[in-house]
Amino acid sequence: MVYKNMEIEQTNNQSPELQQKLNAFFQEGSEHHEFCPIRDVVDRFGDKWSLLAILNLGNSGKTRFNELKNRIEGVSQRMLTVTLRSLERDGLISRKIFAEVPPRVEYELTALGESLLSQIWELAQWASGSKEEIVRARTEYDNQHP
Amino acid sequence: MVYKNMEIEQTNNQSPELQQKLNAFFQEGSEHHEFCPIRDVVDRFGDKWSLLAILNLGNSGKTRFNELKNRIEGVSQRMLTVTLRSLERDGLISRKIFAEVPPRVEYELTALGESLLSQIWELAQWASGSKEEIVRARTEYDNQHP
DNA sequence: CCGTATCCAACAGGATACTG
DNA sequence: CAGTATCCTGTTGGATACGG
After folding, report:
1. Mean pLDDT computed over every residue of chain B
2. Domain boundary assignment for chain A
3. 3 state SS of A78
4. Structure pTM?
């Protein structure tokens, strides 16, 4: 996602520090014609299953394919494979194959994956804390827009 | 997303504190048969445009529809409307209509929206810091899997 | 056990045209 | 200006069957 140059107009009352950082962030993006790094991350776990895979691996350490599949309610074999491959490709999880019969494959978060996990955890805190307020806002909105 | 009950097996070497928190988190989810709060949040901005809308509003404060549309490269009128409505419904942004001709509508982050913004910002920091490592991992993976 | 291959339905989202 | 309405396409992801 490439950002256009834009006029900066500070009209709201949010923290000036974050404002300044955002400002720099947008400047940088538009100068270098780079893709938004946040979107890159969100694309990683914005899909239906990546987040759940990371959380489960964070919870349980080394985990086998079918165990993961059992834990993630509703995931199909295909989608779990696709998800895990994608995470592996980005270096967020490792995949270890054991030359046994029947075969055994263990997945585990890498150091990079664990650092993402802790970020996600922070977000989860926000989510838990804000959930009621969001539900309330949603209900109110639906009442006012019949 | 409802979590199944699961055996807890700690085999990895990550921070015991986070491990414990995750543990409690999964327990809670499975007991109450609730939907995962994190997924709720990610569903908010996991789509193609919500994140960019929040970031732009965070950067510029009160913003009009078309200004937002110009800043978010590539968004269609339809999708911007849909995105903004969804964010408004969840109480993340406010929408103020001015009874003028031609009409003017200003969008702005609410306090809740700003609190999400700062979470997203933290995530962005992680993304910026980890981007090179991810790209490297991706390249390596692609080389090894032709 | 741990996948891959194929097919297909559902939905997100773009293009376009029209309104208060 | 700031939308709504309609149509239409590409992608996501589930179901199923098969392979190492």
Report:
1. 85
2. 1-33, 35-144
3. helix
4. 0.85
